[in-house]
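Researcher: Quick test of sequence recovery. Tokens follow.
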């Protein structure tokens, strides 16, 4: 069974084959999102975690959504500070 992924407005949740439960990665902790569209893969860098590598047909859309959510979070944080 491949890794299952659920994207919400606040986090990316992953259920890996070898895990007992879901792991959550908050968008506010996302430092980088490097996508290889040819290979249908992305590497996600989260604060305090090892990089997360995802592959598959949905990855380009996931990368676009994650970058949008990360950017939206940064805009909200900056506007709240002012």
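Model:
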């Amino acid at each position: 069974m491949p890794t299952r992924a659920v994207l919400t407005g606040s986090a990316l949740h992953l259920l890996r084959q070898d895990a007992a439960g879901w792991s959550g990665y908050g968008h506010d902790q996302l430092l980088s999102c490097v996508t290889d569209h040819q290979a249908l893969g992305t590497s996600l860098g989260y604060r305090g975690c090892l990089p997360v590598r995802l592959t598959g047909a949905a990855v380009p859309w996931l990368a676009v959504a994650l970058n949008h959510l990360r950017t939206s979070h940064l805009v909200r944080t900056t506007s709240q500070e002012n």
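The longest strand covers residues 30-36.
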